[in-house]
Write a structure and sequence with these properties.
Number of strands: 10
Strand content: 5-15%
Helix content: 55-70%
Shape: elongated
Largest sheet: 4 strands, antiparallel
Strand order of the largest sheet: 2-5-1-6
Structural class: alpha+beta
Radius of gyration: 32 Å
Number of helices: 24
């Protein structure tokens, strides 16, 4: 069957190339559907209960997606109340209110305080409207007096010492956004440009910090795309140089790159066809697909030039190359494809989709590498004599050819060291921690990380933990008893480590009660009757405030919302805090029917899903790989043996992660899936040559030597390209890409060492009795 496929590809090579071209053209039509999505929803499956609860909160109270800007008085300044700083706050406020992605802005220049006058509740901006805010010192002191008395805004909108204030812009729902891109990333990117254009970071009166979910999403997009735009071209440049130095022909240099480019184009085009979004994960698809394409095309080129230098014509060499490479490349593609499909067994929607996208990409790469590439090579004329010389006598060739003789005397020692190392390695693997805390993804000098640290220190966070309290009755939140219990819960929250100030309608009702009673602080408490609560809310509404409480109380008065600033922490700490709150709620506040949600809860679940997803996908991968090994090797014994060099690199990498304190997250999951596929690729090529040699009646040691010689050069060449390619990621500004580079280099390097040293040692020990004749004669291709 393989011979028929090979003959068909070369005989009808024009049809194969035309079909490839049509597929490429059609796939590009999907590019018009591509869009970037940085929303929280893309991390979760549609029926995830945690996401459903979060979406229910947004539906009833509005979005909790914000761009948050912190303004801090510079050293030597009394506070932020000076003309230059307030003008900057006004300028920022005006800009945000006019932006299409914003539907609500809170800021110091918009803050309204309440007062009782003429038997009416009134609201008025604490800072009078002005063009340049050139107030007298007495006028500034009057403003300070007002703001010092606004305890409900302290540590929510500004600190009590007035040295810090924030501006928050609520992001409109994506389906209501009139812009062409993503509302959050557009807003954050536009604001960053606005700040630079206006020179707002250059003042000696204040300093600006940027945070909030919009800034975080935009930073993910910005750093990941910038890294790809820098590191990937460098990776491609190195691959081109290496291919040229290896094969010394135009075809051997250009055609693999062409296969790589068209594989990426078709895969990304299909993402658009399926309506999937581009995101911070699949933007790495070209890098991941490069690993697959390079591994397959190197084997094809080495085989093709070997046959050309044996005197075969380009067409004959292409046929023999397909017959030589098809079976091992097919099974390596299957195992790599299954490795990525294993990611689809998890519960993180972003990772599930990425697994499907990469599985499709692997299938595409196989077609272009084993069909299109040989068809193109059949038209070439160069024999690649320099390539054959390098393959036969180059440094890599001499090293690979000498390995079997060097391994044989120490084969038992190699196995003993490997077995003894497993105990400490497995122990270290068990110490790897799961952490999806996004703060770790940014370097210390990244503005978004500096912003997160500023808000954590000043306000205990810029993101909030959300609580939905359900009275189960229409207008039930107006019941003083319910409000009193809500206040108890609110007071409990502020005592917890990592929590900031609580924002809730209870605060407003207590403040109104105080204002309505001559601003006596003794009346800063929950109103005593339901009628009084209703009247206070009506008076407040009639005063025409900018803050209308619609995002704190539902229209029917059945539910209310509490939000508390929540400091970012390692996910294990966040998980413990949330679980403690949920337990306390169940034991002491069951009557309030509290639902705990918000971004902290969402990403806490991502942490749980990462751990369970990795375990499930790894088991799925191992079982799938083992079955494939049984099939391709036609042997249960050799199938189990071949599993050793596939698992060992992952175990060693896990141990190194523990020693270097690298956490397990979605980036390391991607590396595990990719490098496991490469490890299997290497193993199948070695074991396939070994099996064929055994079938040709070579003894065990001769078969090992032949397998190592025929497959080792391509394996080492592929490893050099991929290790250097992944090393380019270490220069990234996005920390997950740095770790991806470190772990990728380590695992791929270990994979080839396991396949060329440990695997032969194991085969030597379990095989038939070795021949006494030494040294081993040069083996010929089988």
């Amino acid at each position: 069957m393989i011979a028929n496929i090979a003959n068909f590809v070369v005989r009808y090579r024009a049809i194969v190339l035309l079909t490839s071209l049509i597929g490429i053209i059609l796939s590009t039509l999907g590019f018009k559907n591509l869009y970037f999505d940085s929303s929280t929803d893309i991390w979760f499956l549609d029926d995830d209960p945690v996401l459903l609860e979060y979406n229910d909160l947004k539906k009833k109270f509005g979005s909790d997606d914000y761009l948050v800007i912190g303004v801090q008085a510079a050293a030597g300044q009394k506070d932020v109340l000076n003309p230059e700083t307030v003008q900057a706050i006004q300028k920022i406020t005006n800009y945000l209110e006019e932006h299409a992605a914003v539907n609500k802005v809170r800021s110091l220049v918009k803050y309204e305080y309440m007062f009782y006058e003429d038997e009416m509740l009134n609201v008025e901006t604490a800072i009078p409207t002005s063009k340049n805010f050139n107030f007298s010192e007495k006028e500034w002191d009057d403003i300070r007096t007002i703001l010092n008395g606004e305890n409900i805004a302290h540590d929510l909108l500004f600190t009590k010492d007035l040295k810090n204030t924030l501006i928050s812009a609520r992001v409109i729902e994506q389906d209501k956004y009139t812009g062409s891109g993503n509302a959050k990333t557009d807003l954050a990117a536009d604001f960053r440009t606005f700040v630079e254009r206006e020179g707002l970071q250059q003042s000696d009166k204040y300093k600006i910090y940027i945070s909030g979910s919009a800034a975080i999403s935009e930073s993910f997009f910005y750093f990941s795309t910038v890294d790809q735009s820098i590191s990937y071209p460098i990776m491609l440049t190195f691959i081109i140089i290496f291919l040229f130095l290896t094969f010394r022909t135009l075809a051997g240099t250009v055609l693999p790159i062409l296969v790589l480019v068209v594989s990426c184009v078709v895969a990304i085009g299909l993402i658009g066809y399926f309506g999937w979004s581009m995101n911070m994960l699949n933007i790495t698809l070209p890098t991941m697909l490069t690993v697959v394409v390079v591994a397959e095309t190197i084997h094809v080129l080495v085989g093709f030039y070997r046959y050309r230098n044996q005197g075969l014509s380009p067409q004959e060499a292409a046929v023999e190359t397909i017959k030589y490479c098809f079976e091992p490349c097919f099974y390596t593609s299957i195992t790599t494809l299954l490795g990525y499909l294993s990611l689809a067994t998890g519960s993180i929607a972003l990772v599930v989709t990425f697994g499907l996208e990469m599985a499709i990409g692997v299938a595409i790469a196989f077609f272009f590498s084993l069909f299109t590439l040989p068809a193109l090579l059949s038209y070439t004329s160069a024999k690649g004599k320099k390539a054959e010389k390098l393959v036969s006598n180059g440094i890599i060739a001499r090293l690979v050819h000498s390995l079997p003789d060097k391994i044989y005397p120490v084969r038992k020692a190699i196995i003993a060291v490997t077995v003894l190392s497993l105990i400490p390695l497995l122990y270290l693997c068990s110490q790897v921690k799961v952490d999806t805390n996004f703060v770790r993804f940014f370097k210390d000098d990244a503005p978004v990380k500096q912003g997160l640290e500023y808000f954590d220190e000043t306000y205990k966070g810029s993101l909030s933990l959300e609580f939905r309290l359900d009275s189960k009755l229409e207008n039930g939140v107006k019941d003083p008893a319910f409000l009193a219990r809500a206040l108890e819960f609110q007071n409990y929250l502020v005592t917890l480590e990592g929590n900031g100030k609580v924002n809730s309608p209870v605060n407003y009702l207590m403040k109104i009660n105080q204002v309505m009673n001559n601003n006596d602080v003794e009346f800063f408490k929950v109103p005593e009757t339901r009628d009084m609560v209703g009247q206070f809310l009506l008076l407040y509404s009639n005063s025409g405030p900018d803050e209308d409480l619609s995002d704190l109380i539902t229209f029917n008065g059945q539910e209310m919302r509490m939000s508390v600033f929540f400091a970012v922490a390692p996910s294990v700490i966040t998980k413990a805090r949330i679980e403690a709150i949920e337990k306390h709620v169940a034991e002491h506040f069951a009557d309030l029917n509290i639902s705990v949600t918000g971004r902290a809860v969402l990403f806490n679940n991502v942490d749980n899903y990462t751990l369970t997803g990795l375990a499930n996908s790894f088991m799925f991968s191992l079982i799938s790989i083992l079955i494939c090994l049984f099939v391709v090797l036609r042997s249960f014994k050799y199938g189990w043996v071949a599993l050793i060099p596939n698992v060992l690199p992952i175990i060693i990498t896990g141990a190194v992660m523990a020693m270097l304190d690298i956490y397990l997250d979605f980036a390391s999951m991607m590396v595990a899936a990719t490098t496991l596929g490469i490890a299997v690729d290497d193993t199948i090529h070695v074991m396939d040559r070994f099996r064929k040699a055994k079938n040709a009646n070579l003894d065990n040691r001769e078969a090992i030597a032949l397998a190592t010689r025929e497959s080792g050069i391509a394996l080492v060449s592929t490893t050099i390209i991929l290790v250097v390619g992944f090393a380019m990621l270490i220069m990234s500004s996005f920390v997950p890409n740095i770790y991806m580079g470190i772990l990728g280099c380590l695992t791929i390097g270990l994979a080839v060492l396991c396949d060329l040293i440990i695997l032969p040692a194991v085969l030597m020990c379990i095989g038939e009795k070795q021949k006494a004749v030494e040294p081993i004669p040069e083996a010929t291709s089988v």
